[in-house]
Amino acid sequence: xxxxxxxxxxxxxxxxxxxxxxxxxxxFVWTGRKFFTRPAELEALWAALGLAEGDTVRVVLEPTRxxxxxxxxxxxxxxxxxxxxxxxxSADLRAYYSKHTKNDHLDSKLLxxxxxxxxxxxxxxxxxxxxxxxxxxxxxxxxxxxxxxxxFQRLDAQLELLxxxxxxxxxxxxxxxxxxxxxxxxxxxxxxxxxxxxLTRFLIRHSRGAWRDDxxxxxxxxxxxxxxxxxxxxxxxxxxxxxxxDIAVEAEQAQVLTEQIDDLDERIANLYAEADPTGxxxxxxxxxxxxxxVITGRIGDPHRFTSLAAxxxxxxxxxxxxxxxxxxxxxxxxxxxxxxxxxxxxxxxxAARRTDPQLAAKYARLMATERHHDSAICHIAxxxxxxxxxxxxxxxxxxxxxxxxxxxxxxxxxxxxxxxxQVDHRTRANAASKRQSQRLxxxxxxxxxxxxxxxxxxxxxxKSTNPSAA
Length: 470
Fold this sequence. Notes:
Elements lengths: L3 E7 L6 E6 L5 E8 L3 H10 L7 E6 L6 H10 L3 E4 L2 H11 L6 H9 L1 H4 L15 H27 L5 H6 L5 H9 L3 H20 L5 H18 L9 H36 L13 H11 L8 H8 L3 E6 L2 E7 L5 H14 L4 H12 L4 H22 L15 H11 L4 H17 L29
């Protein structure tokens, strides 16, 4: 008789893992076995299972950081079925299953009995998670972009000390030429000593000919205005040399981060071409090279999800549901899925509604109900994800259609959206204002005050509520 044993593993990052083995009826063969992710110890763990011919084993574990990935890979190669359990799900079951404090021994026993306690929560996991290069590299790129954005914000604050003319000359996107100028010539006096001819050659070299005499003149004008604003008296002015040194530090960091992003973009393009050779994800409107790689990398295999609803739930863009009897309330987003995927889908949906008439019509209907712009875009994002996943699972490219189902080109789609599905700025502003007022009215508790000891707007009730005081 074939038996499917359940091996619950509480994964640790630095300490030893804990494992418990349960029979199909929930009784334990053994519990609390400690081991590390080393080949010899894994071989001993596998031998301890005592599998007879025809027996199978299901491994249930939580995705603890990245420590689970090599463990799951080794067990899958031995023929085990690996099921991943969300940490929130196991925590809720642990609270119900036990009334005492958490310990690793209990965790492994709980995971081993999870198929009996909550079989619907088990999903066989077949990918390598963080060991997959595309999934990992898009996350790295996102973190570096955010770090560079923080550097740009600090540069903005420092250039404010030099005056607004520097913004006009350098622009707000801080390209390679702008960063080269800030790294070497952020001191207005040194920039003026450089002169227009040498500055023009410097700009031509670092901008590949895009910046020439006009940008050089604008920078020299900005330097002169900075000196006029602060003066030349060292006692009352600003130390331009020290400020330039601080700006150079930030600019050099931005240069390094920009080079890393360029290298990552090249690697991402190659990995995406391998993962989606026909460009199905990239065929969707609003999905560019980076966004298509993020969606592909973070979702992985679309067939690992049991349904399209499961893919939407994984994005975290579905509403929370509170249901009791005939009462059903939906409020807020679960945000329980992948945050990077959710971020990419939101940006793609905001761009797609400008090209796809069907998405634009849905956006207009949502905004007509005084819905906030972000809420409407989240609805568009779930629709876009459903369509991308459908195309992906069926191996077909995204087809752009009008509201009547007629196939159209992207140029035709943008024109149709401009002519028939535009939402004016006043509608968006009114919707945002009304929702803000509604949120303020729904607040409960004492009135807003500058401090807890501030006097109330109405007299306090000084009448005693103690009957014995009467």
